[in-house]
């Protein structure tokens, strides 16, 4: 019985070794085929160089131009207000907004002539309102409510006023507590002034109004560039996959795959060689340009780079399998090319890699969980491989594997 089990194990090992040798032999043939199609390789490299240069140009040109002017009509000349305004106008906000101090009338004129996107009016006595326990507010006048810069400014000012008023409200709660404990008016006022002084000093004189983040520091505000750079790599990988497998239909028509099958190879050997070789080739090519991108922005980390390559390779396997299914299933070149365009365009637009999912409807957000490009894009941006994403990827692999065998049978290769 023991010798029988040993024999079974040896046979399995021999079968695995034979499978490996056969797949390796076919993979070498695929590599030779790719190197012989040097024009396609050069085309892909040039395309990637153009994309990388485009992103570098955008970065050097300080990205999308959202630099705008905002008029400030300040009637409160207290030290606190001046300190706060100086802190706001001289931190990271000045990279996208230029502030101009003007009179209220001049501000309205500039707004009317569209020379500023907004007018901020700070009335006299704002500081006294805070000191007497009343809420403070800015008057904001704008022309275009839909402008993304205006929306950003509104949210920023609302947050700023909220922080000031909540801090002041907290001190007034303390005032009531002191009153309930029997402290007289002068004692309460002295304690409250001391708290207010500490709070205002910490708030007004801190170094930055904005919280710095590692991502912003690493990419110098180029998080959007990274998002669309990854999108570009995915789109180019789809194009390269289609070019890589151009010869499949020709192999089927001329009986090459049938001859390979009759030589002792099986379907698993043939398509595994094509998929693995193609995925390695595409992943290496995209990895080179990802490395250049990371080095240029001074964010190159070996572990992050290797993680990117690994995730890209996994997603690329799915893309290669889908492309091969199209090549086997559809014999007509023109119909197949149009279906390629239609399928990957719809897949891309519904995945959120071109238009972010926050800008799409709720249905797209739900469907995107099952979109392989969404999963791939998130992984390449550094999101973790959750159990849900891993399960969906495995399901994709299983379904496409079964489909590949089925369409091969239908085509009668």
Q: Keywords, please?
A:
transmembrane; mainly alpha; transmembrane helix; 5% strand; ABC-type transporter activity; ABC2_TM; ABC-type multidrug transport system, permease component; single chain; 2 domains; abc type-2 transporter like fold; 413 residues; 4-stranded mixed sheet; 71% helix
List the helices and strands and how they pair.
Blueprint: H1 2-36, H2 38-60, E1 68-74, H3 79-89, E2 97-101, H4 104-112, E3 118-122, H5 126-131, E4 139-142, H6 148-180, H7 185-205, H8 214-219, H9 223-244, H10 248-253, H11 256-262, H12 267-296, H13 302-329, H14 333-349, H15 362-368, H16 372-380, H17 387-411
What does this structure look like?
- By secondary structure, this protein is mainly α.
- It has two domains: 26-60 and 222-411; 68-212, abc type-2 transporter like fold (3-Layer(aba) Sandwich).
- The protein is built from 17 helices and four strands.
- Strands 2-1-3-4 form a four-stranded mixed β-sheet, sandwiched between helices.
- Residues 7-14, 62-67 and 199-222 have low confidence and may be disordered.
Look at the helices and sheets and give the structural class: mainly alpha
Helix coverage percent: over 70%
Strand content: 5-15%
| Largest sheet data | 4 strands, mixed
Could you tell me the number of beta strands?
4
CA(first)-CA(last) distance: 43 Å
Average residue-wise pLDDT: 71
Domain unit count: 2
